[in-house]
Design goal:
Layout lengths: L3 E8 L2 E8 L8 E5 L6 H4 L9 H5 L4 E9 L9 H9 L14 H21 L9 E6 L8 H13 L7 E3 L5 E3 L3 H5 L5 E10 L3 H12 L2 E12 L2 H7 L3
Parallel strand pairs: 4-9, 5-8, 8-9
Antiparallel strand pairs: 1-2, 2-3, 6-7
């Protein structure tokens, strides 16, 4: 095991996470931008002109969302270190000239680094993830056999010493479902707190569906943990570039 370190610098409203892991061949420190983005992404979207979305207004949201960093969609993804990592972890081959396709080995190594950063975030920054009450974690299923979430999910499971069962699945027509029907009668999550993993969080529709299924099998509290919270380009340019 080589040298490694994680340091957070606060410059104005910018929280910069500096990290270096010699054992993974990183020849220079990497940086991620961290922000307090626990609010609803619809409410954060500048296109809504600061209006509260109906779900938040009615208080019907029953889960919490935590993000390690931000995810910039489209052409602006190249300006965010985490955005580039997320795109390179995905099963589909990147189609942008500034993206380099990653092999399974590279994804595995990057997944271990992400797991270390997520562990640091949970233990040092999170206000809603209580490792004493979280019973297990599960991930949003991918429509591809090569699920990018599992690359950081499995090493995170080992680092947190927590169970990582597969409770969710996807149908051939790309609909979400429980992994198997007996889960409804078995209710394995009865009165338990769950951590739901994914790479990005945009409008919350996918996570809402997954949370509903987890509630059906007994989940009490669900905390969603993602690598990057999607920020619309016009919002990011206006609010987050120093």
């Amino acid at each position: 095991m080589g040298d490694e370190w994680i340091r957070e610098d606060i410059i104005g409203d910018h929280h910069i996470l500096n990290y270096f892991f010699e054992d993974f061949g990183m020849n220079e420190p990497k940086k991620l931008r961290l922000y307090d983005l626990k609010g609803c992404p619809i409410c954060l979207d500048s296109k809504t002109n600061g209006k509260t979305c109906p779900k938040c207004k009615n208080g019907r949201a029953f889960h919490h969302v935590e993000s390690l960093s931000i995810y910039l969609p489209g052409k602006d993804a190249q300006y965010s270190e985490m955005s580039k990592i997320i795109l390179q972890m995905k099963p589909k081959k990147p189609d942008k000239p500034w993206q380099k396709p990653w092999s399974r080995e590279e994804k595995s190594n990057q997944g271990k680094i992400l797991a270390r950063l997520l562990e640091w975030y949970i233990k040092n920054k999170s206000t809603t993830i209580d490792l004493n009450s979280i019973t297990c974690m599960t991930s949003v299923p991918s429509k591809y056999p090569d699920n990018q979430v599992e690359y950081f999910g499995y090493p995170l499971k080992d680092r947190l010493n927590i169970k990582y069962p597969n409770y969710l699945g996807r149908t051939p027509n790309d609909q979400y479902e429980l992994a198997y029907r007996d889960l409804i009668s078995e209710r394995p999550l009865e009165n338990k707190d769950v951590l739901l993993l994914d790479d990005t969080y945009t409008d919350g529709k996918t996570k809402e569906t997954c949370c509903q299924f987890l509630k059906q099998i007994g989940a009490r509290k669900i905390v969603i943990l993602v690598l990057g919270r999607t920020i619309p380009p016009q919002n990011w340019n206006a609010r987050y570039v120093g």
